[in-house]
Amino acid sequence: MALRSAKRAERAPVRRRGRALGLVSLCLGLAQVAAPHAVRRLSGVDDSATSRRVVPLVGARELVHAAGLLAGRRVGPWAWTRVAGDAMDLASLAVALGNRGGQRRGRLVGVTGAVLGITALDVLTAVQATRAREKGGTVELTATTTVRRPVEEVYSFWRGLEHLPSFMTHLEEVRVTGEKTSRWRATAPFGKTVEWDAEIVDEEPGVRIGWRSTGDADVPNTGKVWFVPAPDDVSTEVHVVMAYDIPGGKIGKAVARYFGEEPHQQLDDDLRRLKQVLETGEVVRSDGAPWGKRAREEFPQRPAQPLSPEELAKGEPA
Amino acid sequence: MKAVTWAGRNTVEVREVPDPTILNGRDAIVRVTSTAICGSDLHLVDGYVPTMQDGDVLGHEFMGEVVEVGPGVDPAKLRVGDRVVVPFPIACGACGACAAELYSCCENSNPNAGIAEKMFGHPLGGIFGYSHLTGGYAGGQAEYVRVPFADVGPLKVGPDLTDEQVLFLSDILPTGYMGAEMCDIQPSDVVAVWGAGPVGQFAADSARVLGAARVVVIDKEPYRLRMAEEAGFTTINFDDVDVRSRLLELTGGRGPDKCIDAVGLEATHGSAHVNAYDRVKQAVRSETERPHALRQAILSCRSGGIVSVIGVYGGMMDKFPAGAWMNRSLTLRTGQTHAHRYMKPLLERIERGEIDPTRIITHRMPLADAPRAFEIFKNKQDNCEKVVLTP
């Protein structure tokens, strides 16, 4: 089961540049910490006692930038820390420039020029990384499972559309409104629900179904499912690709959070339940995970002991 | 109802919990008449299996009377009033794994399959009272238990046999048997079994039933070795002698043809410094296993032999003798027991008197005394081999 995210692809150049800047920080930091004197001489500040203390400190700070950019999940905030570091460095360089002349001044001018160039790159990266988060993008998910039922049965179950909410976490209802059209209702963040119309745009009976939302859906989406006979001649491989246009700004953030840290895990679990429903007749429940398709929302789980009548009455979804 | 619950590492408590109800159409509710403590329950209590929660009901060896069935249970297969032994793995009977009789790998019975998949690459099936990794199912050390897929697992037994004769069909007898069956035993085979606990005893019984020329049982508890001797097996006490040398003596230098590890992840080693090495690594969680028995089995087995693993392992192992395994053409076979496969044939062997599972029972106690029962079983006090609890 795999995840492909178009949104990630879009951000890849910014991410790569963030990593490159992290490497720059790593090299500078190591040099300043390991060989401060050489750095001071090259920068033309080897005559100052203050620089003896400042250069290793700046090196340590560079190593922090490096750790964040190379190991962190998000480029944006760490790129901004580099911008702040650049401002500090430029201020120090300005002070140093005011106090020097001759060869040392020449070296300082060179270093200042280099820092100005890097500052421009840092600001660009930080702004782009931050914007990419606010702009939203497309999330594409893929998942697959094998169901030990014939292709025709699995295809018809999915094509019935009304069955989808029995195994898909966030879907509450799918109502068929025409031969190719349907109305979908899903739970949304903060206890709300969202509805949209969908139409089947690509269909080959027993082989594949493709659909997309129509009109002004809050989260425009498309989906496609293929039904492939498995090599054992009795089972069906189900391959699903779903794509969501996540809006920008606050709504996008809320939607992203709703999908969770690992959106592909939800689709994997959806397909696991599809398999349970088709092979055993219903979604499997345990004492620790008693509410079927809501299982993942309940981690850490209730203990593996029978439910009280109150819990049973309260927990059963309407 | 009263139930034995996990209350943190090294603590079990008998608590009052709600009675179970039907949650899925193919559930049954069983009134437990006998249940037992398994060696693998100790791995849970000792804290070596992750995803346990305070209040989890323990127990995966149990039997009793069906008192309620869900609307989806085929009456031809199970009815209220039936006396049943319930296999410890929960299996749907309809998925690819079940079709291949790999019941403990059932693809549908674990609602927490996603977590199990992260740890093991592919998910595990559900197991009663055995952590949330295997589904979060309440176990059978209780007065009542909910049994999912009740038309697949439970084995109906008549009134002629006692509870004690059939109770172990739920786990340890099929487990010992599968350990021997995986050895593909030939009439000339010497079979060595590491561990003289209940599963090791049944593995030895099964190896004999399947025609082994000689069965050797290895442990360090004199009373457990005595039990094996009384059943007619050769024994080795690893506290007294070097196991490999003794096995070579017993086999004319060839080594045992087949080796069964009935110990698992909490093994002890005869040599204190080797023992300390893995104990420390396990304590700081840099490995999850203390695999002395398995290492020794691999090093002792004759070239081309089979090493069959039925002792439980949970995660990552250190110093696995891959060189011996590969260069000497050993075959490693293992699995959580596919109990469903073996229950009926083993019931027939019990009926014919070929195996007497009651020989290992040393303690019979009320369910309410479970904390004390766990204590004496874990610490091997009072010559404890197997405890049967009665609700």
The secondary-structure class of chain B comes to alpha/beta
| Strand composition percent of chain B | 15-25%
Radius of gyration of chain A: 28 Å
User: What topology, given as strand order, has the largest sheet of chain A?
Assistant: 1-7-6-5-4-3-2
Q: Give Rg of chain B in angstroms.
A: 20 Å
Total number of beta strands of chain B: 17
**Largest pleated sheet of chain A:** 7 strands, antiparallel
Q: What would you note in describing this structure?
A:
The complex is a heterodimer of chains A (318) and B (391). Chain A is an alpha+beta fold and 318 residues long. Chain A is built from 9 helices and 7 strands; from the N terminus they run αααααβαββββββααα. In chain A, strands 1-7-6-5-4-3-2 form a 7-stranded antiparallel beta sheet. In chain A, helix 1 crosses helix 2 and helix 2 (36-43) crosses helix 3 (49-71). Chain A is elongated and about 85 Å long. Chain A starts with 5 loop residues before the first helix and ends with a helix. Chain B has 391 residues and is of the alpha/beta class. Chain B is 28% helix and 20% strand. Chain B has 13 helices and 17 strands. In chain B, a hairpin with a 5-residue loop joins strand 1 (2-6) and strand 2 (12-16). In chain B, helix 5 crosses helix 6 and helix 5 packs across helix 12. The model of chain B has no long low-confidence stretch (mean pLDDT 95). The A-B interface holds A 146, 148, 232, 235, 265, 268-269, 272, 275-276, 279-282, 284-290, 292, 295-296, 300-309, 311-312 and B 3, 5, 17-21, 23-26, 53-57, 72, 92, 94-96, 99, 107-114, 126, 129, 132, 135-139, 144, 146, 148-149. Chain B: It holds the Pfam family ADH_zinc_N. Chain B: Its cofactor is Zn(2+). Chain B: GO terms for molecular function: oxidoreductase activity. Chain B: This is Zinc-dependent alcohol dehydrogenase. Chain B: Residues 27-155 form the Alcohol dehydrogenase-like N-terminal domain.
